[in-house]
Each structure stands twice: as C-alpha cells, then as structure tokens.
Amino acid sequence: MSAWTRTVVVDGPEQTQALAERLGAQLRAGDLVVLTGELGAGKTTFTQGLGRGLGVREGIISPTFVLVRRHPSAPDGPRPGGPDLVHVDAYRLSSPAEVDDIDLEDTVDTAVTVVEWGTGLVEHLSDSRLEVSLERAVGADPLDLGDLTGPAEESEEEGEEADDAEPRRITLTGVGPRWAGGPPRL
C-alpha cells in the first residue's frame, strides 16, 4: 500500500530539524505524520523542524506529559493562515479506540497531525499518511549506515557532545493517495 520510501542520513539534531523544516514547508492541512523511533531518536526534534516549516508558534516540546498539544499557525510566521500543528504522544495509548477518545478526528482535516508512537493506532484517521522512522545509534552500537547517502554535511560546530552529533537514519514512507505523486523535495 505504500507509494514510495526514501531514506536520508543526517549528522545530528540540527540537520534533523533542517530536513523536517523543508518537509514541513510542503505539508498541508489534513496531512497525518506518524513518527516512530526509540527514545532519544529525535522524534520531538523532527517535530520542532516541522513546526518551523509550517510556521507555527514556537514551544514544541515532547508531549510526554500531555497527550495532545495544538500549535497554532503564527500570524507573523512564514505561512500566516497556514495549518496548525497538532502534536500527539500515543505512547500511553493502547488501541485505536483510545485515540478516538482524544478527538483527533475533530482536527485531522484542518491541521497537520503528528503522532509519536502512533503505528497501529492512528491509521484509521486518514486514507493517507507519511510514516517517518528515526534511527539513532545507541550506546556502543553504531548505526549501520550501509551505502546510504543523504544531504548530510559535516558539522561545523565545535564542542558538540558525541550523543548529539551521532548520525540518524530517517526513513519516510508515503502511504495513500496524498503521497501517490512521489516523495516531497527534501
């Protein structure tokens, strides 16, 4: 059912945000983005970049302590009047029925909805979705990048902590009619 899959490698959080910002500039109301990845892989960092690209108000944080947080379009941002960003943490939800209880269907058509940990829970909200999987090396286990190449450049910042400078593999998969035309330009 997927239309396409694209994988890119970035060097760390800044490039993760920059990639997501370019993607966010192309998203529109009704888009559903499902983020997966281990703790610390960069899901919230990615969402912060999406928010910048969408031009929503600052302040995107991990939604760990709230299930849903709405970030309105900023009137002085790059897309005034653009869609809001609805950021969801589905980590504590165990079924699509629990997703229905938080009323996402009320905003999914008018906002860009980003759901962390949403695989298997939110697919019923839309016939199209963008699945984004983030992978990051953990501890002594390096990230096997294989032959992947992407837009990543060497970091120029000195003094970055090793954890922050670790590469991330970001795999985007378009599912459904919205993404049938191919991947967005990144």
From TrEMBL:
The keyword Aminoacyl-tRNA synthetase does not apply. Residues 153-164 have a biased composition (Acidic residues). Residues 141-186 are annotated as: Disordered. InterPro entries: P-loop_NTPase (IPR027417), T6A_TsaE (IPR003442). GO terms for molecular function: ATP binding; metal ion binding. One of its GO terms (biological process) is tRNA threonylcarbamoyladenosine modification. One of its GO terms (cellular component) is cytoplasm. It comes from the Bacteria. It is found in: Cytoplasm. Pfam families: TsaE. Keywords: ATP-binding, Cytoplasm, Magnesium, Metal-binding, Nucleotide-binding, tRNA processing. Required for the formation of a threonylcarbamoyl group on adenosine at position 37 (t(6)A37) in tRNAs that read codons beginning with adenine. Is involved in the transfer of the threonylcarbamoyl moiety of threonylcarbamoyl-AMP (TC-AMP) to the N6 group of A37, together with TsaD and TsaB. TsaE seems to play an indirect role in the t(6)A biosynthesis pathway, possibly in regulating the core enzymatic function of TsaD. Belongs to the TsaE family. This is tRNA threonylcarbamoyladenosine biosynthesis protein TsaE. It comes from Kocuria dechangensis.
